[in-house]
Design goal:
Two copies of one chain form a homodimer. By secondary structure, the first copy, chain A, is α/β, with parallel strands linked by helices. Chain A folds into two domains: 2-117 and 323-368, NAD(P)-binding Rossmann-like Domain (Rossmann fold, 3-Layer(aba) Sandwich); 137-321, Rossmann fold. In chain A, 34% of the residues lie in helices and 18% in strands. Chain A contains 13 helices and 19 strands. Chain A has helices at 20-28, 47-53, 77-82, 99-108, 129-148, 175-186, 200-206, 231-247, 268-272, 319-322, 324-340, 355-360, 371-378, and strands spanning 2-5, 32-36, 56-58, 68-70, 88-91, 111-114, 156-158, 161-163, 167-171, 190-194, 210-211, 250-253, 279-282, 299-303, 310-315, 343-344, 347-348, 361-364, 367-368. In chain A, strand 10 (190-194), helix 7 and strand 11 (210-211) form a beta-alpha-beta unit. Chains A and B meet through helix 5 and helix 11 of A and helix 5 and helix 10 of B.
Chain lengths: 380, 380
């Protein structure tokens, strides 16, 4: 069976859905692996390394010839339409926002697996691309903050006096937030963090952060994700966070609710209350933003209330893509591990009795298998 | 006596020669402190904080009124000419490259102290601006590398496999190099380093780096600085370094010889032998460059020998200025500490029997007191 790895077409996307290492794994499963020339170039993976690993380099993939297509960004509707009936796709599908693609996959009779839908159970951890890419994003956002801060992160004791460490506040302590805490701590900052899930207090502490307890009722949703707070409680949350934000040199926000708009945690007024030179990095900028006024891919200078300077508000965009080599390394393993679960004797044969396979399946045999997506499509 | 703190006029310079903290120290010495409005703004120090510390905010300083002028970048010849006979200046003077300023200082009868000339003895460590700013630059260049590298610095053990740490090679183990080693190590990289001074091996190890011993005769000059290698030995050095450079994900070069062109440690061919995606940061780019082809303030993409990608060659420029708040904090202390040594009862009265004062003095009473600068001026 033929498996194809495309060059990603999405602007600014530098990742690739397979590395030479995973090509070896996929070829070892008995699959015939085709890869588009220079598909891994932007991520630092060379064509000759893919060839050495057992892939055939082709100028352009013909989707109609493939049994399996692996990808990073959701496939285009036109690509979905060109796939064979029964072909399998594995990759990020953003089902809530890419309904046109979902429709095309259904109509083409494609069996599409969305990595976002992989159940968050321990057996499926090695296929969890949301987590692997959040790890990258969490590390990245600390670098983005540190390079813009006119101060050191670590404490320095020098002959010319002592420089106190930077204060970093992280809001949202999921995979990305915890990684941000750990990375800021590594660099020597004094780190505190908050999350509406009480269970995260121990995790924050284990990464070296100080958990800030807010006097809110706490909420933890099924699946380990935070659920949205009601409007009133959101306002209370912001009020309680304001003094902590004002004290921070760096604020990093990572609160996301999958498939929904990110919660507004920080108002413009709160940003204006920070000291001149402070930096805010909003990792949720692409999904609506945790910080008022954040624009994905842009640095906004917010004047401080004292009129003496500004805060740099960074709307992060494509964070994992900026670390394309290691982000692809982890992503490609997620893809290959999910595929390995459904290949027998060189044939891709998904067993829908397997919870992981069933859970990750977005479309199959002309139907949408993910209920919220099916409802969203029906509502169009 | 009136002491003036100007807004720095040099393009791209964000530092300031005094902070509210050192204004308090200077005012405490009995000096009448004047500061230009918004002089500290780019570094994150507000006018009202200077005022609270005891400074008077003025729109523009009149050099002719001042007894003391403190500064970051060398004063302009026109400013030097406008100073009173017997006025004192304290700051970086770059005497080897700013001869026009030196000439103007001599003609105006100014007593100029150059922080670069402060003797490297323990009593003067708190006035050593070369060291304090090199500390900032060394930290900074690691961030500049990390943000461009498409990989993590630390080792990660994840559900999707293990990501090995980045390999960082630091050439030149002075203050900046040691700080780069320590910062890269903090971030989790595997760090190795080389310096032509054998004494640096222990210092490299103390920062967590592995010292690379090259089979060169070793050289250590007076004053703790490296001296230039002869041309032949430079070629041998590059040859011996080449395999270490090829293995590195990140190369940071920090080898400087004060007042002279930086040594060429890395040829273009060596850069081309690195893997696609690798990053080179040349901290010496402004003084001629340790790396062939480095351009101050620019990223150059050097194609790799395998034709599969490129290496990003960063010519660092104004590195301490990019961290203006903490760089100013340390620099301002250096300035204030040197001044404190020469103020008695509110009067600046340098005692030239003091080695530190005598050593740091560039011009006094119509003469150049620093021999190499006097020779360079005479040779014009």
């Amino acid at each position: 069976m033929k498996l194809g790895i495309p060059r990603e077409r999405h602007e600014g996307e530098r990742r690739v859905a397979a590395t030479p290492e995973t090509v070896k794994q996929l070829a070892g499963l008995g699959l015939d692996v085709l890869i588009e020339a220079r598909a891994g170039a932007a991520a630092g993976y060379a064509d000759h390394d893919y060839a050495d690993a057992g892939a055939r380099i082709v100028q352009d993939l013909d989707p109609g010839e493939l049994n399996v297509l692996v990808h990073v960004r959701p496939v285009l509707p036109s690509t979905a339409a060109a796939l064979k009936r029964g072909a399998v796709t594995v990759g990020m599908a953003s089902p809530s926002s890419e309904l046109a693609t979902v429709q095309a996959l259904v109509e083409a009779g494609v069996t599409a697996f969305a990595l976002e839908l992989v159940p968050r159970i321990s057996r499926a951890q090695s296929m969890d691309a949301l987590s692997s890419q959040a790890l990258v994003a969490g590390y990245r956002c600390v670098l983005e903050a540190a390079i813009r801060l006119p101060r050191f992160f670590p404490l320095y004791m020098t002959a010319a006096g002592t420089v106190p460490p930077a204060r970093v506040l992280v809001l949202g302590a999921g995979v990305a937030g915890l990684q941000a805490i750990g990375t800021a701590k590594r660099l020597g900052a004094r780190v505190s963090a908050n999350d509406i899930r009480p269970a995260s207090a121990d995790e924050v502490a284990s990464m070296g952060g100080t958990f800030i307890k807010l006097d809110l009722e706490t909420a933890e949703a099924s699946g380990g994700y935070a659920r949205e707070l009601s409007a009133d409680r959101g306002a209370l949350q912001r009020e309680l966070l304001a003094p902590h934000v004002a004290m921070a040199d760096v604020l990093i926000t990572t609160a996301a609710v999958p498939g929904r708009r990110a919660p507004l945690l920080v108002s413009r007024q709160m940003v204006q209350g920070m000291r001149p030179g402070s930096v805010v990095v909003d990792l949720a900028a692409e999904s609506g933003g945790n910080v008022e006024g954040a624009v994905p891919g842009e640095d906004i200078l917010v004047p401080t209330a004292d009129g003496q300077g500004h805060v740099t508000l960074v709307g992060l965009k494509d964070a994992p893509s900026a670390m394309a080599q290691d982000a692809s390394r982890l992503y490609a393993k997620n893809v290959a591990n999910l595929l390995a679960l459904m290949v027998r004797d060189g044939t891709v044969a998904p067993d829908f009795d397997d919870d992981v396979i069933a859970g990750a399946c977005l479309t199959h045999d002309g139907a949408v298998r993910h209920l919220p997506t099916a409802e969203a499509l029906a509502a169009l």
